[in-house]
Amino acid sequence: MTDTTNARRSPSFELAGPDPGARISIVAIAAHDARALEQLMGALIAGQGMAFIVVVDAEAAERVNTAQLRPPSPFRVVMIDQRTRLEPDCIFVAQPGQLISCEEGELRATKSETGLPIDHLLRSLAANQAGNAAAVLLSGVRGDGAVGAVEMRAAGALVLLQAPSSAGEASVPEIQLLAATADRVLPVAGIQGALVDYFRSAAVAETGPLALALEREPEPEPLGLILDALTQTVGHDFSRYKRSMIGRRVLRRMTIHGLRDPRQYLVLLESSTAEAELLFNEMLIGVTSFFRDPAAYAALRAALELYLQRPQSRRDLRVWVAGCSTGEEAYSIAIVIQECLERAGINPALKILATDLDPKAIEFARSGRYPIGISAYVSPERLARYFVMEDGGYRINKETRDRIVFAPHNIGRDPPFTNIDILSCRNLLIYLEPDLQEQVLSLFDYALVPGGLLLLGGFESVGGLNTAFEPIDKEARLFAHCATHTRKTWSLPIDPLWTERPVRREDRLVNRAAQKHSAATIAEELLIEEFVPPSAIVSPMGEIVYVHGRTGRFLEPAIGAPSVNIFDMAREGLRLELPAAVRAAQQGESVVRRGLNVRTNGHYESVTLRVKPLTEPESVRGLLLVSFELDDARSGPRLGNGDATSQLEAELQHAQSALQGSIEDLESSNEELKSMNEELQSTNEEVQSANEELSTSREELQSLNEELQTLNDELAQRNRLLSQSNDDMHNLLSSLQVTTVFVDAQLNVKRFTLPARKLFKLRDSDIGRPVSDLAINLDYPNLVDDAEEVLRTLVFTEREAQTSDGEWRMVRITPYRTANNVIDGLTITVTDIQRIKELERERETLQDLFDGVVGDTPKPFVVLDAELRITTASLEFARRFCATGAHLVGEPLGELGLLPAGAE
């Protein structure tokens, strides 16, 4: 369960001037690329009551000149000063080195050369103007902006991301947290329209049916229907979450779609699985950061140092972080624990279990990679000790990551973990209804060991379990599990999502919704009342489901506790016949008993009893219709003595017949019970056999588990060797500083070394891109053609090429062979030959100088190579052989006839 945050609807400020009732909508534009910013400026439309704030990340501050923005008329460009009042149809530009915050309708600037300008602005808007703000993240924005965008969306603001298809650079933000946060991904041309629709819908939604219902009623009906539809799609029940939080999340989704009536959104939700997933993610927006609320972590550190002094602290240390969201809290607690263990000088086995309801958040937490914006929350010392700088962001180091196990877990449904020493569940309980809060706290009571630590959020408490948890620091909401407290037992709760709730046919019949009757319906009911005899619809056990007409002559309340069983309510004369008739009718045939003398108000009346099984419609199938009809010819005053004797004899005969029927029914029931008993015995034997099979399977599973354990050890050893080889290769490539790019058979980038980032302008997101799309800093237009030729011929090629700076490089393209001698792409290696070229030029210069000196020598002079061939000859030497020096170069000296006899 993710730490969802209250969507804060900050009051918007009003404009001063000619239209004091107007409202300013604030749009923060985060830019990294000048082209994308210029495109957005050209697409803006005035007159919508929006104020735009442009801030550029520090990396692009020198490349993007915001002072030269040319928006369409009548927009004005305003450079932000220390205090600048917001106005509509204005573009406020942050200068390099400024940190901008928005407070009370004005922008306030402070100087900072090392801050994160985008994150700072977005966090300020989230805290002060979330209900009336939006963030637009343009192409290239990556680390700076990811943290602020999460806080903006969690606070209820709109977050838009430029689509990669229209990006000036071929890149989507590499930090997946940023991509997952955006409400919509749009091209530049669609951003202005999305902003207009959103702010217009937001203004309408504030007076819409759902918003008004949330103010008046604790549980508006449309919200319950929306939750039911969400549960049916995603399989998670939010009915025990607080309605105020759910209502704000639903209202936000309605605003994004421009819907005012919740019934319209219900139709959308029922017809779109994608929208259900988006609403589910909306419910689970996690607002978390590293070392959020430093005072709480300081209190945890102090309590943990005392906890580690106990003798039992030498054993394994188990930690549970419930509702870990994207992992920042789990890693923060892991860092604090490691620091405490180092200070205490002990090294117990540490296992941290971090769980959350959102599987996407768990996947992000497992990666351990976070944007550069976390530097605002983590000290430089901890960044250097526990993080590794990687491609413009931070990754948690391997030692800390290996201590944490991330897993999906529904805290309201799944079994808890046990023997927990430290349990952290911050800012989750405040979004649960009181009954679910109590259930979760009872689960914590069961999970913690005596003396274990419980850390809650700043607005949470242990409620009615104050005897189970003793406060250590009330301000930090840190508690200790009482050692003298008897731990609660825990049983698996029945999940309402997977439990069928059968509705009895009786309930379906009785609880039909009231309808507005037409004249025809009323006439029909009057005719039924007049001509249909008194009747009752009963279950096979005699429970009355529905009564029609006046049945007082035949039924009366039974003595004792109130009962709706027709057998208990039958008057004298029906007490034996009615149960027998009902049992007979259960065989599927109608039963009629005529001439029954029923005693009513001191005299007897002749009654015809009819029992008919009902088969249609399906809602009443299995029930029986019992009707009572009077026979007026046999009705009369109290009977005389003679007639009474005859009547008693007739009743005795009926009683004997009914008794005989009961005896036959009892014998039939006994036979059925015997048959059922035999079936149960057979079932018991089958269960015993299945139990023996399970025992055998258990032994096999134990054997298999031992084999798997052995295999796991082997795989762990191989993994260590692979990690070592990977480290060796990484260090080798780093030390050689060789520019190398590995491509597949389709010439798509697979891997590259660090020096290749500069020459080929590569980054991690370029993996998978074709080489032809790269902006290579080499004058080598035939690179792709040569690569294809090497793939075809499997013969390597070498080419010399110059960079844009005029430096020489040797490009070598060779086939990439796997261990199975399969060609799986190419290896492109670029070697620096600038020094070689310089030496060649120096040698040529010296050679020319030497040739000039030798040529001007007045005496015959010749220079020979190792094979006695002439390399240089003076003019006098050439004159004697009637040739020029150039003609003699390369000629064997022996062919000139100058060598003495026997010379070699």
Brief summary:
This protein has 26 helices and 32 strands.
Kindly describe this structure:
It is a single chain. This protein is of the alpha/beta class and 904 residues long. The protein has seven domains: 25-205, Rossmann fold; 217-283, Chemotaxis Receptor Methyltransferase Cher, domain 1; 294-481, 3-Layer(aba) Sandwich (Rossmann fold), CATH 3.40.50.150; 529-635, 2-Layer Sandwich (Beta-Lactamase); 639-724; 737-832, PAS domain (Beta-Lactamase, 2-Layer Sandwich), CATH 3.30.450.20; 839-896, PAS domain (Beta-Lactamase), CATH 3.30.450. Helix content is 39%, strand content 20%. It has 26 helices and 32 strands. Strand 29 and strand 30 (823-832) form a beta hairpin. Helix 1 (34-43) packs across helix 5. The longest helix has 96 residues, at 641-736.
What descriptive keywords fit this protein?
disordered C terminus, single chain, 26 helices, disordered N terminus, Rossmann fold, seven-stranded parallel beta sheet, 904 residues, Chemotaxis Receptor Methyltransferase Cher, domain 1, elongated, alpha/beta, seven-stranded mixed beta sheet
